[in-house]
Structures are given as structure tokens and as C-alpha cells.
Write a structure and sequence with these properties.
Elements lengths: L8 H4 L2 H34 L1 H37 L3 H28 L1 H7 L7 H14 L1 H15 L3 H25 L4 H19 L19 H74 L3 H28 L1 H6 L6 H14 L3 H16 L3 H27 L1 H26 L6 H5 L2
């Protein structure tokens, strides 16, 4: 039963303007977060060397898992929240918000403490060796104990964006990124501390971002109100199902990192792992750029779906696919033309590390032609509740196909086969999306052609 009708800005604003209103802050916020990650890498690489950089790269899946938990519950809940708001069911939307914040706080605390108890075998399982273990261990210990701060900050940011305040969500990301850069500069270059202090600086920065987000609750336009709720198994299952593709996407990043670290350790040793650490920092910028596009359309598609505004959904996805394709082409061109200078930003490494990084990056960036569109389409299907396709897109591109390629190709092509795994998996997934669209017609008969794919 619908509650009393209230007009929402998305009911009246043009699709193009609404897309830009969410896209610009989402992209800027994500880019600043990416810059922050890269600056961390530059600082560690220049100050502590390539082995420390490799250690951080090995430990990074722990950070990714915490982000994955926040996206699993956060995106799943926020999608249902926006659908309820589109249907004018405000009480239901607030119950979803209250329920999800409670669940994510408890879940990530339990996971962090449990993983901390088994941290040493976990570090070696992620690809550490005698050289990289001390750095990976120092970073991971802090993240396991305090990483829950990320999950709360990230989840609240998602809800604030879905509550019609993408600019404040961006400001929180800016606060996190800039404060982390400043803190880690002092940690490394003024106080000359190690990677454990770098990790703690990142935790503090996330807490400052959370403080910015809390100002949303003081606004008159805020709909994010905590309500008492009863245990609702059906709601939890729905949140888990809807948010699962986002969780899978983040877990896929960990699978991507671990599989490349293990394979490169086997075929190229520590030099190969260090080269991949450089490439993964660069990749994080592009990855977060595409994630920003997904973050921009998720509130729109979810709201339009709840409000049964199908034409607005179709217009949104056409604009988003064109944007993703254009951005992928531009990013590919930039990286191809400036590969060596980009690698050189991270420090003066041995000629072998630099050669591996340059060679790998030039092959790997081909994936960007397909990756952005795959991100957009996964978000679209997730936002309308078509979970099978959303899960297929995520699992195929980041796990099933990638792991198959990274297992088989190096046996015939050596290290080149490792770098080719992601571009091939992204391309094949896009082909399956096109085939599915043409058969299902779920976006309209001519939407893909109009979108340029």
C-alpha cells in the first residue's frame, strides 16, 4: 500500500540532467579516492621501496573484502530503499535503512576479529614470501581490527547518495582522500614510520569522511531516519540477493589481485609482483572511474523502477553506456601514449620491474574498452532485480573466465598470458550481454544500437 504521495525531484527532472547530477559528484569522488590510492602507492614506493609496495599489494585484498561487505549490504539495501522511495513507501524505506546499518556493523566486526585470529596463514595464502611478509603483516593487522570503519562509512555514503544528496557523498570522499594523503605524508616523510602507520592513517581518514556524512542527518530533506525494527529474515535474504553482485564484484577484485600475485610470483618472482603492484594502482583509477558511473545510475534506475517509469530507465541506460564507451576509449589512449612516464611516477625501480610493468600495462588496458559497459550493465540489472544476469556479468568477468585464462594462457605465452586474461574475459562478457539483450529485448528493440554497441 502506497503512502501519501510526495513529489520527488527525480519525478520531474529530465533524465539527462538527473544523470549528470549524480554522475559528476560520483565520478569526482571516485577519482579522488583513486588518486588517494595512487598517492599512497607513490609515497610507499618512493620512501620504502618496491618490496614494501609489493607487501601492500598482497595485503590489499583485506581492504577490498571490507569494502565488499559494505557494498553487499549497502547497495542491496539502498537499491530496495530507492525502489521504496519511488513507490512512495517512506516508512518501508526507513526500516530498510535501519536494518542494514545494524547488520553491516555487526557482520564486519565479527569477520574482522575472526580473520585476525588466523592472520599469519592468511597472509601467506595471499601470496606473501619471506621478503614481503613483514610489510603485508603490518598493514593487514591494522586493517583487520579497524576495517569496520570503512564498511560503515561506505554504506552510509551509498544511502546518502540514494537519499538525493550525491554532493555530500562526494564531499565525504574528498575528505577521506585528502586527509589520507596529508596523514600518510606526515607518517612516511616527517615521522618516518612504517606501513602499519600508513594503514592507521587510512582508518582515521575514513572516520573523518564518516563525520562529514553525518551532517546529512541534520537536514530537513533527510529521509534516512532510524526506526525500531523486528528481525526480518525475508528482508535480510532480499538484501543479500540484491546486493550480492556488488559483493561479488569487490571479491572479484581480491580474486584478481591474488591470482595475479600468485601467477606472477611463479613466472617472474618478486619483480613481477612489484610490477603488478604498480599496474594495480593505475588500474584502481580506471576501476573507480567505472564504479563511479555505476554509482551514478544505481539510484536513478532503482527509483525509476520503483516508480514504474520504464522510459526513463531506458533513457538512463542509453546515456550511461555511451558515456562508459567514450571514457574507456579515452583512458585506453592516454595510458597507451604515456605508459613509461606513468610507471615512472611510482619510483625508480630496477629495469626488470619497469619492463614488466610497461609491457603488462599496454596489454591490460585493452580491457577498458569493454569494462565500463560491463559495469554499467551489471548495475542496471542489479537495480531492476534481474539478479541472474547481474551475477553472471560479475562472476564471469572477474572469476570464471579470468581464472580460466590466467591458469591456461601462461603455460603457452608466459607472462604475456597473465596480462591478457582480463582483456579477454571482459570482451567475452560484453559479447554475452549483447546476445542476451538481442534475445530478451529488455532494454527495448533498438537501445543497444542507439547506445553505440
Amino acid at each position: 500500500m502506497r503512502e501519501q504521495h510526495t513529489t520527488h525531484l527525480l519525478d520531474t527532472q529530465s533524465v539527462g540532467r538527473a544523470f549528470l547530477r549524480y554522475l559528476i559528484p560520483s565520478m569526482l569522488g571516485m577519482l579522488l579516492v583513486a588518486v588517494n590510492i595512487v598517492v599512497d602507492g607513490v609515497m610507499v614506493g618512493n620512501k620504502l621501496g618496491s618490496t614494501a609496495l609489493a607487501g601492500l599489494g598482497i595485503a590489499s585484498p583485506v581492504y577490498t573484502i571490507f569494502v565488499a561487505m559494505s557494498l553487499w549490504i549497502g547497495i542491496g539495501s539502498a537499491t530496495l530503499y530507492s525502489q521504496a522511495m519511488g513507490a512512495k513507501e517512506h516508512h518501508k524505506a526507513q526500516t530498510i535503512f535501519s536494518y542494514s546499518v545494524t547488520i553491516i556493523t555487526v557482520a564486519t566486526l565479527v569477520i574482522g576479529i575472526t580473520a585476525f585470529m588466523f592472520r599469519d596463514p592468511l597472509i601467506y595464502a595471499l601470496g606473501a614470501n619471506a621478503e614481503t611478509y613483514p610489510y603485508a603483516s603490518a598493514y593487514m593487522n591494522v586493517m583487520l581490527l579497524f576495517g569496520f570503519v570503512f564498511t560503515i562509512e561506505n554504506a552510509v555514503s551509498i544511502f546518502v547518495r540514494n537519499d538525493g544528496n550525491p554532493n555530500l557523498s562526494m564531499m565525504a570522499q574528498i575528505t577521506f582522500a585528502l586527509s589520507n594523503i596529508v596523514i600518510n605524508y606526515f607518517v612516511l616523510y616527517v615521522f618516518e614510520l612504517g606501513v602499519a602507520s600508513v594503514a592507521m592513517g587510512t582508518i582515521i581518514a575514513a572516520f573523518l569522511g564518516l563525520m562529514v556524512l553525518f551532517t546529512h542527518f541534520l537536514r530537513k530533506t533527510n529521509h534516512l531516519k532510524l526506526r525500531r525494527f523486528k528481525w526480518d529474515k525475508a528482508l535480510l535474504i532480499t538484501v543479500i540477493i540484491v546486493g550480492f553482485p556488488s559483493f561479488l564484484a569487490e571479491v572479484g577484485i581480491s580474486v584478481f589481485t591474488i591470482s595475479h600475485n600468485v601467477s606472477l610470483e611463479k613466472y617472474a618472482g618478486t619483480d613481477g609482483v612489484a610490477a603488478f603492484s604498480i599496474m594495480s594502482y593505475i588500474h584502481s583509477i580506471i576501476l573507480l572511474t567505472f564504479l563511479g558511473m555505476g554509482s551514478a545510475i544505481q539510484p536513478l534506475i532503482s527509483y525509476y523502477h520503483g516508480a514504474r517509469q520504464d522510459e526513463r530507465k531506458r533513457q538512463t541506460i542509453r546515456i550511461a553506456v555511451r558515456t562508459a564507451l567514450g571514457a574507456g576509449a579515452v583512458l585506453l589512449l592516454i595510458v597507451q601514449l604515456a605508459t613509461l612516464p606513468i610507471v615512472g611516477i611510482f619510483g625508480h625501480f630496477s629495469s626488470q620491474v619497469t619492463a614488466h610493468a610497461v609491457h603488462g600495462l599496454r596489454i591490460f588496458v585493452i580491457a577498458y574498452l569493454f569494462m565500463g559497459i560491463n559495469f554499467v550493465m551489471m548495475t542496471y540489472y542489479q537495480s531492476i532485480g534481474s539478479m541472474r544476469m547481474a551475477i553472471w556479468i560479475t562472476a564471469a568477468r572477474e572469476m570464471i573466465l579470468m581464472l580460466a585464462f590466467i591458469t591456461v594462457l601462461p603455460r603457452f605465452m608466459g607472462i604475456t598470458g597473465i596480462w591478457m586474461a582480463v582483456p579477454l574475459s571482459e570482451c567475452i562478457v560484453l559479447i554475452t550481454i549483447v546476445i542476451y539483450y538481442r534475445r530478451q529485448g529488455s532494454l527495448g528493440k533498438h537501445s543497444l544500437r542507439k547506445a553505440g554497441i
